[in-house]
Amino acid sequence: MRFLLLDPESQRVRDRAEEDRSSETPTASVLKERIIGAAEEFRRLHLANLTVRYYRCTPSVNYFRIDNRTFIGSYFVGIPSRNSVTLFCRTGDRLAEWYTKHFEAVWTSTDFSRPI
Questions:
Q1: Edge to edge, what strands does the sheet with 61-66 contain?
Q2: Where are the alpha helices (DSSP H) in 45-108?
Q3: Which residues touch 58 (CB under 8 Å, ≥6 apart)?
Q4: Alpha helices in the chain (DSSP H)
Q5: Is 31 left (phi over 0), alpha (psi -120 to 50) or beta?
Q6: Which one in 24, 70, 101, 111 has a CA-CA gap of 20 to 30 Å to 92?
Q7: What does the alpha-carbon distance between residue 18 and residue 25 come to, in Å, rounded to a whole number?
Q8: Is-contact 58 4, C-beta < 8 A?
């Protein structure tokens, strides 16, 4: 399992909190605390097959994959991501591949992501 979380030290946290305008994350400091808390929860699981990285690029897409199923979506201004449209694709479909390549590019980049 691999998770990319927005880097809590990134300028993008402030940007996303402002764009999201959610009651759950009304400020960048609250969003930062939520990200750090999620990373800590993952760490406490002590799963050998779980790796988490922080990403520093603009949060623009949601990508979630389980086996041969891929769920993709976008971040929209003024809408928490969980409330926006999510598309289902089969892993390997042309649309899913665009998102898979994006995830892999961010995951492997030392410019756009880092270990937690």
A1: 61-66, 69-74, 86-90
A2: 94-108
A3: 12, 15
A4: 11-20, 28-44, 94-108
A5: alpha
A6: 111
A7: 9
A8: no
Question: What token pair was written down for 53?
Answer: 């990285």
* Contact between 116 and 54 (Cβ < 8 Å): yes
Per-domain residue ranges of the chain = 2-115
Predicted confidence pLDDT, tens digits, the chain (116 residues): 999 999 999 999 998 888 877 777 778 999 999 999 999 999 999 999 999 999 999 888 899 999 999 999 988 888 777 788 899 999 999 999 999 999 999 999 999 999 99
DSSP 82: G
Question: What whole-number distance in Å separates Cα of residue 39 and Cα of residue 43?
Answer: 6
